[in-house]
Specification:
The protein contains 13 helices and 22 strands. The protein has about 475 residues and is of the alpha/beta class. It has 3 domains: about 220 residues, FAD/NAD(P)-binding domain (3-Layer(bba) Sandwich), CATH 3.50.50; about 110 residues, FAD/NAD(P)-binding domain; about 110 residues, 2-Layer Sandwich (Enolase-like, domain 1). The strands form 5 sheets. Strands 1, 2, 3, 4, 5, 6 and 17 form a 7-stranded mixed β-sheet that branches. It starts with a strand and ends in a 9-residue tail after the last helix. It binds flavin-adenine dinucleotide (FAD) and adenosine monophosphate (AMP). Belongs to the class-I pyridine nucleotide-disulfide oxidoreductase family. Its main location: cytoplasm. GO terms for molecular function: dihydrolipoyl dehydrogenase (NADH) activity; flavin adenine dinucleotide binding. Pfam families: Pyr_redox_2, Pyr_redox_dim.
């Protein structure tokens, strides 16, 4: 088939498939090309997020949380169960079913919106044509007025700990262990390392996380990181900071690790090793030599503030470009680019992108950290409120953590909200809305919050900015 489209999207992750649907909604004749093959050997739309990222990790986090609660937390409610067991095949099978439901759902959305899906690897050629290479090696070329590059990212591999996908694994491998590893090593205490370390730790693995940096979760607000570190330690996650992996050797059925910290070199033996040291933009085979599209020093596609590459009609979005590697960031860029192409006013506010870590307790934030405000010399006020004083959190037996709010000292405008505690993945939305509307702590303080709910912690933290929280000393 040779055809001319208004828009071709390369990559059907949350950036690309959303861009394709929005473009089609706007009346543009749209194609979307994706190369991802699912566990059943068929095309699986949805990219990293739906296949081996956000959705499967949350499925396993939820199942493992149920098991952990049953074995550790239900006794206080008067609920006990003898010989609680986890059947790993069912646990993984449930996750696979959810993945299939959602990847299949993208196919249906494409059909409903008349997006033409191609299965294969897309390569941008000069002049906005795209060559598609199918699995069997056959090729076809299609062209469009606009091409959106949404090729996403892949895990970073350490040269001295190469993935063999059995003993040394990436995120995809750690979502598919056939049994609970007795000893699990995790390299990198970032979002992925903490989430997947938690999953297997809750099922009984002895988890050691090695993190090269001296500070825990330095991307988050320091108070949040401190509370989270304490809770993770209570759960039995051994997090070693300032510990840099230097060697990993598969010996029989074990992996022998060498890491270095301030006291010198140490050895650690584990049954499985998850390397979660970050992800890099994926552009292998994406660009013919003469397209004019540029990559930066980290291999990301260079774009301007409108996600335009500087080459006429060529745009790029999602993990393949600058900015946080988050599904919702890519999706919003996808919508904005489709709207810019259609002559509308697209918009992505990078100052209010929420971050969530789905551990227990959950961690969520949006806006500036206290350190960022200090470093920038911006005067601020702080309000905090602990979940220990929230009736609903106590009733749930999940009264851990706090909400911390940072507002401008003079204007009271909300600058950052940092949460650690129950359900904060949902509570953060209120902070995002307030910041998007350029609201103040006072605005939040005046809003009626239902009682008893976890959201009262947001209300009380807003009151606490002006030292008038009701249910704690100020
Ligand atoms: P991707 O999702 O990587 O999709 C890119 C797609 O393009 C892939 O299907 C790829 O096969 C395809 N492709 C690449 N090159 C070509 C080509 N040349 N031709 C055809 N197809 C091509 N983010 C969150 O916001 N929340 C979370 O809870 C979260 N959890 C995560 C958990 C894990 C374990 C991991 C690994 C990531 C998680 N992320 C999370 C990050 C999130 O998955 C990514 O930010 C998101 O998937 C990026 O979307 P994308 O569309 O840019 O790229
Ligand atoms: P993230 O980028 O959030 O996925 O986090 C990855 C983490 O891995 C970062 O905090 C890095 O400091 C850490 N890291 C990278 N290389 C190593 C290494 N060799 N040993 C231990 N930790 C590492």
């Amino acid at each position: 088939m040779s055809d001319k489209f208004d828009v071709i999207v390369i990559g059907a992750g949350p950036a690309g498939y959303v861009a394709a649907i929005r473009a089609a909604q706007l009346g543009l004749k749209t194609a979307c090309i994706d190369a991802f093959t699912g566990k059943d050997g068929k095309q699986a739309l949805g990219g990293t997020c739906l296949n081996v990222g956000c959705i499967p990790s949350k499925a396993l986090l939820d199942s493992s949380k149920q098991f952990h609660n049953l074995t550790h937390n239900f006794a206080v409610h008067g609920i006990t169960a003898d010989n609680a067991k986890i059947d790993v095949a069912t646990f993984i099978g449930r996750k696979d079913k959810i993945v299939k439901q959602f990847t299949g759902g993208i196919g249906q959305l494409f059909k409903a919106n008349k997006v033409t899906a191609f299965y294969g690897t897309g390569k941008l050629l000069k002049g906005n044509s795209v060559e598609i290479t199918a699995n069997d090696g056959s090729k076809q070329t299609i062209s469009a007025t606009n091409v959106i590059l949404a090729s996403g990212s892949v895990p970073i591999e350490l040269p001295f700990a190469k993935f063999d996908n059995k003993f040394i694994v990436d995120n995809a491998g750690a979502l598919d262990f056939p049994e609970v590893p007795k000893r699990l090593g995790v390299i990198g205490a970032g979002v992925i390392g903490l989430e997947l370390g938690s999953v297997w730790g809750r099922l009984g693995a002895d988890v050691t996380i090695l993190e090269a940096l001296p500070d825990f979760l330095s991307v988050a607000d320091a108070d949040v990181a401190k509370i989270a570190a304490k809770e993770f330690a209570k759960q039995g996650l051994k997090i070693k900071l300032g510990a840099k992996l230097t060697k990993a050797e598969i010996k029989g059925n074990e992996v022998a690790l060498t890491y270095e910290d301030k006291d010198g070199a140490h050895e650690l033996t584990v049954d499985k090793l998850l390397v979660a040291v970050g992800r890099r933009a994926y552009t292998a085979g994406l660009l013919a030599d003469d397209t004019g599209v540029k990559l930066d020093e980290r291999g990301r596609i260079v774009v301007d503030e409108h996600n335009h590459t500087g080459v006429d009609g060529v745009w790029a979005i999602g993990d393949a470009v600058r900015g946080p590697m988050l599904a919702h960031k890519g999706s919003e860029e996808g919508v904005a680019v489709a709207e810019w192409i259609a002559g509308k006013a697209g918009h992505v506010n990078f100052d209010t992108i929420p971050w969530v870590i789905y551990t227990e307790p959950e961690i969520a934030w949006a806006g500036k950290t206290e350190k960022e405000l200090k470093d920038a010399g911006i005067p601020y006020k702080v309000g905090t409120f602990p979940f220990a004083a929230i009736g609903r959190a106590v009733a749930m037996n999940e009264a851990v953590g706090q909400v911390k709010m940072l507002a401008h000292a003079e204007t009271d405008r909300l600058l950052g909200v940092h949460m650690v505690g129950p359900g904060v993945s949902e509570l953060i939305a209120e902070a995002v809305v307030t910041m998007e509307f350029k609201g103040s702590a006072e605005d939040l303080a005046r809003i009626v919050h239902a009682h008893p709910t976890l959201s009262e912690a947001v209300h009380e933290a807003a009151l606490s900015v002006d030292k008038r929280a009701i249910h704690k000393g100020n």
